[in-house]
Design a protein that fits this description.
mainly alpha
Length: about 200
C-alpha cells in the first residue's frame, strides 16, 4: 500500500501526510474511549484514536483506512467500521477500503505484473484465480511464485510467510497497472485516492 500511495500521490507530495503500516489487524474495541497503546501498532484496536485524531487535526484532509477482510463478512465488517466513525466523529472525512480476502488479492489480480517480477511463475495458478474470491489468497500467490508453494512457507513457520509477503509486494508492486488490475476492491481503493492525487480512473 505504501508503494501504491507513493505512485499515485507522489506527484503531489504535499497531499500525503503520513502512511502508517500496522503489525496486525486486531479487533474493534468495545470501549470507544479505549486507551490502547499506539506503539502496539494494531490497527483496529487503535481505530477510535485514529478517527478522533482525524477530526481534531485541522490540516488533515482525509484518513484512509485499508484493511484485509480476512474471515469477516464484508458488508457487516464495513458497517462496523463505519459505526465507529459515525459514533466518534461523523463529520470527519474517514474513508474505509477493504481488501478481499487479503491485500495479496491486489497483486494476484494483475498477472502481467506478477510475471514481470517473477518470470517463472506458475501461470495456470494465476489464470485460475478469480479476482477478490475467498480462496486462501496469500496461499494461492505462494503456490504461483514461491518454491514449494504455501506448504513450504507454512512448514518454515513464522516469520517466513510475513517476510515472503513483504518481498512479493516490493517486487510486484512497481509493475501493477492501475488501469487493468482486475480486483474490484483495488478499484475501490483507487477511487478513494483519486480526489487527493492526479490519478485518472479508467472505466
Amino acid at each position: 500500500v505504501t508503494y501504491l500511495l507513493t505512485s499515485i500521490l507522489g506527484r503531489r507530495p504535499q497531499s500525503v501526510g503520513y502512511v502508517h503500516s500496522y503489525r496486525g489487524v486486531g479487533h474493534l474495541p468495545k470501549n470507544l474511549k479505549s486507551t490502547e497503546n499506539p506503539s502496539r501498532r494494531i490497527l483496529l484496536d487503535n481505530l477510535p484514536k485514529l478517527v478522533r485524531g482525524c477530526a481534531a487535526t485541522p490540516y488533515v484532509t482525509a484518513l484512509i483506512v485499508v484493511v484485509d477482510v480476512d474471515n469477516h463478512d464484508c458488508k457487516e465488517f464495513l458497517n462496523e467500521l463505519k459505526s465507529i466513525h459515525d459514533t466518534i466523529a461523523p463529520n470527519s472525512n474517514v474513508i474505509f477500503r477493504i481488501a478481499i480476502e487479503e491485500m495479496e488479492a491486489w497483486l494476484l489480480s494483475d498477472s502481467p505484473a506478477i510475471l514481470s517480477a517473477y518470470p517463472d511463475a506458475n501461470e495456470p495458478v494465476l489464470l485460475g484465480y478469480v479476482p477478490d474470491s475467498i480462496c486462501g489468497t496469500w496461499e494461492t500467490l505462494a503456490n504461483a511464485i514461491h518454491p514449494g508453494g504455501a506448504a513450504a512457507l507454512k512448514a518454515e513457520g513464522w516469520p517466513a510467510p510475513g517476510i515472503a509477503k513483504c518481498e512479493w509486494a516490493t517486487k510486484i508492486g512497481p509493475h501493477i497497472d492501475f488501469d487493468t488490475n482486475a480486483s474490484p476492491s483495488f478499484r475501490k481503493f483507487l477511487e478513494a485516492l483519486a480526489p487527493y492525487g492526479e490519478l485518472e480512473i479508467a472505466d
